[in-house]
């Protein structure tokens, strides 16, 4: 059985990290660098950093921030927010990102997914899909696209994405459990790893996402910010439930289909 990754998600909004409910992220949760250092000490499998305001504000990725984070982050780092061009991707990889999460651009400029995959390898392309019901939303969950979430996931795979970060905008921050139905339908429709996101309230929710919804990994934020839960505990819960935990990302899905280009 493939190993299961537990991935804390950090939502960045100009002044620092935030978290709320249903993509209404207003509550401050601390500084980026302090949080990164804590997660590093706790030995998390991977870390996700999303600039949730960049696309709406028309900003490019904050390369200086990612450079600073990467210097303190000794685990695989996925970065998203404001990515519109291959130059943005190249810049993020150069300053230390291991993967890029492409969300709005995957809808508005699908060729970016393919170009990134061809130039840098599918292993660094994360198709970030936010959904409500069965519909894909962009611009931090504010813009409806009319796209079906399963069909869009399949298209992202066809375009060259190496994995999918699947986030329920309605369950985000509510800690009521992942959307197991949509997660399962997406996981069964694609051959690439699916990361369940949005709604984790306890360790059992994470195990259900893997065992019942067939996710390859779980991402979470609120449970780590607002409870005593730690990223290490889900590993033992998943192990007891019958799935293995990841000690490092190299043991999970080698999907490199391209060559890094400077």
What does this structure look like?
The chain is globular, with a radius of gyration of 16 Å. The protein contains ten helices and twelve strands. The chain has 262 residues and is α/β, with parallel strands linked by helices.
Give the overall average pLDDT. Answer: 87
- Write down the overall geometry: globular
* Secondary structure: helix percent: 25-40%
The CATH H-level superfamily is: Aldolase class I
Number of E-state strands: 12
CATH architecture verdict: Alpha-Beta Barrel
Low-pLDDT runs:
244-262
The spatial strand order of the largest sheet comes to: 1-4-5-6-7-10-11-12
- Cα distance, first to last residue? 36 Å
Major sheet description: 8 strands, parallel, barrel
Order of helices and strands: EEEHEHEHEHHEEEHEHEHEHH
Question: What descriptive keywords fit this protein?
Answer:
eight-stranded parallel barrel, globular, single chain, alpha/beta, TIM Barrel, 262 residues, two-stranded antiparallel ribbon
What is the secondary structure topology, with strand pairs?
Layout: E1 5-12, E2 17-21, E3 24-30, H1 32-41, E4 47-51, H2 63-72, E5 77-80, H3 86-94, E6 99-102, H4 104-108, H5 111-120, E7 125-132, E8 135-138, E9 143-148, H6 149-159, E10 163-168, H7 180-189, E11 194-197, H8 203-211, E12 217-220, H9 222-226, H10 232-241
Parallel strand pairs: 1-4, 1-12, 4-5, 5-6, 6-7, 7-10, 10-11, 11-12
Antiparallel strand pairs: 2-3, 7-8, 8-9
């Amino acid at each position: 059985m493939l190993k299961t990754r537990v991935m804390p998600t950090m939502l960045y909004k100009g002044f620092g990290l935030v978290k709320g409910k249903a993509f209404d992220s207003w509550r401050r949760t601390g500084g980026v660098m302090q949080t990164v250092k804590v997660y590093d000490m706790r030995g998390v499998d991977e870390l996700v950093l999303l600039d949730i305001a960049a696309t709406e504000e028309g900003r490019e990725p904050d390369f200086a921030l990612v450079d600073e984070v990467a210097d303190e982050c000794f685990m695989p780092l996925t970065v998203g927010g404001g990515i519109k061009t291959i130059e943005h991707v190249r810049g993020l990889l150069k300053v230390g990102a291991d993967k890029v999460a492409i969300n709005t651009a995957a809808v508005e400029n699908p060729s970016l997914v393919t170009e990134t995959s061809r130039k840098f390898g599918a292993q660094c392309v994360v198709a970030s899909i936010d959904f409500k019901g069965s519909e894909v939303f962009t611009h931090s969950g504010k813009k409806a696209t009319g796209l079906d979430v399963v069909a869009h996931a399949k298209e992202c795979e066809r375009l060259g994405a190496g994995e999918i970060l699947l986030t329920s905008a309605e369950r985000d921050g509510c800690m009521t459990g992942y959307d197991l139905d949509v997660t399962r339908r997406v996981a069964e429709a694609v051959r690439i790893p699916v990361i369940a996101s949005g709604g984790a309230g306890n360790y059992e929710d994470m195990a259900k996402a893997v065992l019942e919804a067939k996710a390859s990994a779980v991402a979470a934020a609120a449970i780590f910010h607002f409870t005593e839960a730690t990223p290490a505990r889900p590993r033992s819960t998943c192990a007891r439930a019958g799935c293995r935990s990841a000690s490092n990302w190299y043991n999970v899905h080698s999907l490199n289909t391209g060559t890094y280009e400077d």
